[in-house]
Amino acid sequence: MSGGCGDDGRRMDEAPPDNAIVRETHMPAAEDAPDVQPVAPARQRKIIHIDMDAFYASVEQRDDPSLRGRPVAVGGSRERGVVAAASYEARVYGVRSAMPSVTARRRCPDLIFVKPRFEVYKAISAEIRAIFAEHTPIIEPLSLDEAYLDVTENLHDIPSATQIAEMIRQRIREVTGLTASAGVSYNKFLAKLASDYRKPDGIFVVTPAMGPGFVEDLPIGRFHGVGPATAAKMQRFGIHTGRDLHDKSLPFLQEHFGKTGPYYYSISRGIDERPVRANRIRKSVGAENTFGADLFAFDEMREALQPILDKVWRYCETSTIRGRTVTLKVKFADFQQITRARSAVQPVASRDDLERIALSLLGAAMPFDKGVRLLGVALSSLIREGMSDETPTQFSLPL
Predict the structure, then answer these.
(1) What CATH number should be reported for the domain holding residue 146?
(2) Same domain for 302 and 393?
(3) 351-365 and 298-319 are packed helices; what angle lies between their axes, rounded to 10 degrees?
(4) pLDDT single digits (tens) 95-118
(5) Which residue, of 50, 205, 269, 385, has the fewest CB within 10 Å?
(6) Taking every annotated instance into account, which residue ranges of this chain make up the domain UmuC (predicted)?
(7) Which CATH number belongs to the domain containing residue 368 in this structure?
């Protein structure tokens, strides 16, 4: 079920532009990087990562037979917005989630745009999570269509995580008519990589013996937790593959990558001690974009904020998360930065409300006496729908 961001979260499937960052403050910086230490795990976990295949688009094709076998984009429109999900038929043309609709239409003239039905996706996601819960209570949802499961100790005492993953995939197909891919390994990092390895409708296992070698051969851009900007920086240091990253010392990585250095050091060795965290919620979610030319007019900035707002709200919809505090970030041509925030008693209820508050903050801060090179919007004071309080964390999404 894929992250954060739309349903194929690869973050995850495509490489977002270097100048775009979304603040989970996933991800691409490494979800819990500061907590990861470069030491061998105390015990060998059995982790499954389940990722639904083109979830939103597959639901639409399931429910509307006329869409089957055709290129479908969920979200956006012919003129504006961004693609929330793309069917596999659309991906053949290079259409990906988070892509501007205009670009998607250019790549695939026959692309069919379908309005999202988040209530339907949420209902199906609940069915899928109920299937997970038949095997383990230790479930960490990343979005409506993606989750980690710790099955080291499971409810049926099945010793094989691979067998459990197959049982779950089969049950998902029986209950929902949809397909899921699974990755099985001894940690979260490798399980997530593995779930992408044989998509769609596949399963891949990375054993402890395979782990270090599997990582060494991967391009650095495939590493979960390494976004495009970080990958470009690594490449400037001659780091192009997992093997190159492995060859760098811990002091070097700490010097050049700060608190995420230990995370990169560990994953290059196939080590990731992050536990699967049930009922986890983020501390904030946001997006920002740096522009090729400075912006000066309010109308220019309002237009530039649209894909940023789309991205933030899509994450809220896919993760059933809402927030009470909206923060606007503005960085000027001279790199001076300001933020403006507004909190409400109730969580922001819709994308229109999010836009209204963000534009109100922007209008109140203007006029500016210099050009704007970056805009960002973040939501914080987050809760999950139906819950009053959860332990927070922070993370990043690709725009």
Answers:
(1) 3.30.70.270
(2) yes
(3) 150
(4) 998 888 889 999 999 999 999 998
(5) 385
(6) 47-227
(7) 3.30.1490.100
145 is in an annotated binding site: yes
- Which DSSP string corresponds to 178-194? --EEEEEESSHHHHHHH
Q: Which domain holds residue 76?
A: 58-114
Helices of type H across the chain: 55-63, 88-91, 101-107, 118-133, 161-176, 188-197, 211-216, 228-236, 242-246, 250-257, 261-267, 298-319, 351-365
Q: Which residues pair with 382 in a beta bridge?
A: 323
Beta bridge partners of 325: 343, 380
Question: Could you tell me which residues are beta bridge partners of residue 358?
Answer: none
Distance CA 87, CA 55 (A): 8
In the prediction, which pLDDT does 85 show?
92
Segment (H or E) for 140: strand 139-143
- Which whole-number Å values give the CA distances from 192 to 10, 82, 148, 388, in the listed order? 10, 25, 8, 30
Q: Mean pLDDT: which of 21-30, 39-48, 94-103, 254-263 is highest?
A: 254-263
**Active centre residues (catalytic):** 146
Token couple for 286: 């946001």
Q: Which residue has the higher pLDDT, 279 or 34?
A: 279
Q: Into how many domains does the chain fold?
A: 4
pTM comes to 0.70
142, 343 contact by CB (below 8 A): no
Q: Is 18 assigned to a binding site?
A: no
* Tens digit of each residue's pLDDT (9 = 90 or more) over 266-289: 999 999 999 999 866 678 888 888
Residues 170-200 pLDDT 10s: 999 999 999 999 999 999 999 999 999 999 9
d(CA 109, CA 355): 30
**Both tokens assigned to 104:** 């998607």
Q: Which of 114, 137, 157 is the last residue before a domain boundary?
A: 114
- Give CA–CA dist 99/91, Å, rounded: 11
Q: What is the C-alpha to C-alpha distance for residues 8 and 57, in angstroms, rounded to an integer?
A: 10
Q: Is position 97 within any domain?
A: yes
| Per-residue confidence (pLDDT) for residue 225, from 0 to 100 | 79
* Tokens encoding 354: 């999010």
Helix axis angle for 55-63 and 118-133, nearest 10°, is 110
